[in-house]
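Board notes, transcribed. Complex of a protein with adenosine-5'-triphosphate.
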Amino acid sequence: MAREDLLLEVNGITKRFGGIVAVENVSFKVHEGEVISIIGPNGAGKTTVFNMLTGVYKVDEGTIRFKGEEIQSMNPRDIVKKGISRTFQNIRLFSDMRVIENVLVGAHIKTKYDFFSSIFRTKKFKDEEDEITYNALKVLQEVGLYDRRDDYASNLPYGDQRKLEIARAIATGAKLILLDEPAAGMNPQESHELMEFIRLLKKQGYTVLMIEHDMSVVMNISDRIYVIDHGKPIAEGLPEEIAKNQKVIDVYLGGSNNAAKD
Ligand SMILES: Nc1ncnc2c1ncn2[C@@H]1O[C@H](COP(=O)(O)OP(=O)(O)OP(=O)(O)O)[C@@H](O)[C@H]1O
């Protein structure tokens, strides 16, 4: 029987690019409040999975259910509105905009006012804008960037820029946050702070699905881990199970996949 707190259920998704099968028959589940990691060597298909979850790529086969509803045919904007938001491998902030403005960009996906209201700045428009600004500031408070709200994004330290990206994802109202290599380019101190930050998100009720190469981050904060290699699922389990799984060790140690880098 399905657990009531099942948030995301991915069933047998496959994606082909011409002759390349980037992802083949991958299935996994995410429950509310979990931190789940997807790992695998370079080119394993992890980002392709994220692109299918967020509607950037259409699945060739399989289903993706979010809160019980099939979303694999929806467009990216509707998927964000349903409650799934993401960050990217390379930070994608508006660097010449202020911190608060970057968060507002995420928050605006929720606006309900029409074109007329925005042109004539009706009361409905102003009320909604006030509410959005209030919520954006609340998100900045949640992630610890409130005091830097008026700084330009480019002036933030690297770790805070990652946080700001996550803040923008949260400001959409999403409860499932997909993080694509959040620790990429971080030094050990920044990675440590990131782990604390992800634990904080979990405490605040967010669910996190993460692609990550930094094994100390993965092993320290994941509730469960899924491993894929050459597009196929090869293992799943608790961090301590994955750490001693022979198939996983072989893929990371022996592969022709540039795995040493990971
Ligand atoms: N748009 C695309 N067109 C053609 N091939 C693609 C496309 N996107 C991904 N691929 C291929 O699909 C495979 C999986 O790529 P993907 O980027 O999902 O791997 P990854 O696990 O995220 O890798 P990394 O850890 O290096 O980011 C690779 O062989 C890649 O070249």
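The first helix runs from residue 46 to 53. Residues 5 and 32 are 5 Å apart (CA to CA).
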